[in-house]
Amino acid sequence: MVGEHAPTDARLPTPTHERRDLMTRFTPAFGMPGLALAALLSVTACGGEADHNDADVEFATGMIPHHEQAVTMADLALEQGGPEVETLAEEIQAAQGPEIETMTGWLESWGEEVPEDMDHMEMDGMDHSGMDGMMTPEQMEDLESAEGGEFDTLWLEMMIEHHEGAIAMSEDQVADGQNADAIGLAEDIAEAQQAEITQMQEMLRTDG
User: Fold this and answer.
1) Residues 6 or more apart from 52 whose CB is under 8 A from it?
2) Rounded to an integer, what distance in angstroms lies between the CA atom of residue 42 and that of residue 188?
3) What does the pLDDT look like over 98-132, one tens digit per residue?
4) What is the pTM of this model?
5) Under 8 Å CB-to-CB from 126, ≥6 apart: which residues?
6) d(Cα 36, Cα 34) in Å, to the nearest integer?
7) 38-50 pLDDT, tens per residue?
8) Given its phi and psi angles, is residue 121 left (phi above 0), alpha (psi -120 to 50 degrees) or beta?
9) Which of 44, 49, 54, 71 is the most exposed place for a label (fewest CB within 10 A)?
10) Exposed, middle or buried: residue 149 (CB in 10 Å: 0-12, 13-18, 19+)?
């Protein structure tokens, strides 16, 4: 009996053969997902680091001095404007001052250069009129020298143009930016300043 079964037992695969066979059959199946997962994690990590792009930097770098000029114009309105203009100027300051701080914080956290503090651009002769809606030093001097109803009209006309520039800059950011917070702020700026444009246009019609 033993002799009859010996050849059959000899043909059975040894445990070593079984392990080698299992490794050959299943290693590719487990190895490929592992490689794919590693590749996915690598891509995700790279994407996480790139939380902003050039458009985000350009938006913050440009909007900071743009807002600073609006705050300067609001300062003048608080000194020389009529009651309605003064109230709107206070609202502009309350909105744009904190936005300047927010964008400054972004640039610092991104390791980008923050625009030089121009002390609200106090008629220092620095010309930023190449930016959308920015007033020239000459226009700012005209505004400063205006009085009464002339000041209110000129201020409203200039601030409408200024807001239109900010809206254009915000639309560029929404279209080209990457950072979600910066895009959200751009959307808020565009919405708020469009509403103020409508308000100022009505104020001009009423004064006229």
Assistant:
1) 106, 110, 177, 178, 179, 182
2) 34
3) 999 999 999 999 999 999 875 544 444 455 556 78
4) 0.72
5) 118, 137
6) 5
7) 443 333 333 334 5
8) left
9) 49
10) exposed
